[in-house]
Structures are given as C-alpha cells and as structure tokens.
C-alpha cells in the first residue's frame, strides 16, 4: 500500500538526531515519531513510514504502510502489526523510518516502545524509555502499556 519511490535526490542517509520527533534507540538506530494532524514538519522526508490510523491515510510520495489502529485503542491485526514493526525496525538501520498517528502520542508511542523492545529494551522498561527519549506523554492508555509489556 502507498508504495512510493526513494524520495527526492540528495535525501540519502539517516535522520538528523536533532530533528523534532527523532528518537535514538539503544543500538543507535534513529526513528521519527510524528503527529499527522500537524502536517509535514518540513526538512527531510522519510524513506519508509508506518501509519497507525483508524482509516486509510492519503497517498504519500514515500513508501508507507498502514495499520488499522483506532485512536486510543490497539491494532486490529496483531500479526500484521508485529510484521510491520519488524519491517520498520529492520529498515531503520539503513533508512529514514517514520511512525505516525493523528496525535503522535498514544499509538505512535506504543509503536515506538515496541521498536525499542525489538532493539533490546526489556519490555517492562520500553514505555519508560520512549517517555524519556520521545515524549513524556507517550503510550496513553493502560491497555497500550500492557500491549508493549507483552510485545515480542
């Protein structure tokens, strides 16, 4: 879904760690979390994005994958979510990976915490890691925290 090209010429490499929303995982991989309702932040585009929304997003000029994930809830398809998060983590080693939802906090924070688990953070510490390194409000609902604790 939403397969785009490699992005504009001259936009190779990884994220700038100082860019808004960019979180460094313990391995050094960089991923960006984003609130889609705030629009595109400008600057460098992602090469791959994972969007967590209740309904299908519009087309993007970069490669993107959509997961049906209603606001304040959990993903509808856990197997597809695990697959998509695994892909996002793998690609973050060599590409600019973005994770986003409408507000960029609950669903995005939950997904980023799962990426932290894939990167070696113990599941019971992943929410704290994301709150420290991305947003103190990340992972809003108790069931989202439980989802992260059981992820992996």
Automatic annotation (TrEMBL):
> Which Gene Ontology MF annotations are present?
protein tyrosine phosphatase activity
Compositionally biased tracts (Gly residues): 1-10
A Pfam family in this protein? Y_phosphatase
Specify where the region named Disordered lies, as residue ranges: 1-20
- Cite the Gene3D superfamilies for this sequence: Protein tyrosine phosphatase superfamily
What are the residue boundaries of the Tyrosine specific protein phosphatases domain, all occurrences included? 76-133
Q: What is this protein called?
A: Tyrosine specific protein phosphatases domain-containing protein
The record, for InterPro entries, names:
Prot-tyrosine_phosphatase-like (IPR029021), PTP_cat (IPR000242), Tyr_Pase_dom (IPR000387)
The organism's lineage is: Bacteria, Bacillati, Actinomycetota, Actinomycetes, Jiangellales
């Amino acid at each position: 879904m939403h397969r785009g090209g490699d992005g504009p010429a001259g936009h190779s490499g990884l994220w700038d760690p100082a860019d808004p929303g960019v979180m460094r995982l313990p391995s050094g991989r960089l991923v960006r979390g984003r609130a889609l309702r705030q629009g595109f932040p400008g600057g460098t585009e992602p090469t791959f994005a994972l969007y967590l929304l209740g309904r299908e997003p519009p087309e993007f000029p970069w490669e993107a994958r959509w997961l049906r994930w209603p606001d304040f809830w959990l993903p509808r398809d856990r197997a597809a979510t695990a697959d998509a998060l695994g892909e996002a983590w793998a690609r973050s080693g060599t590409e600019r990976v973005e994770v986003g939802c409408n507000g960029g906090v609950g669903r995005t924070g939950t997904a980023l915490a799962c990426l932290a688990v894939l990167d070696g953070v113990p599941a019971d510490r992943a929410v704290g890691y994301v709150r420290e390194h991305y947003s103190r409000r990340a992972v809003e609902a108790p069931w989202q925290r439980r989802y992260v604790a059981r992820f992996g």
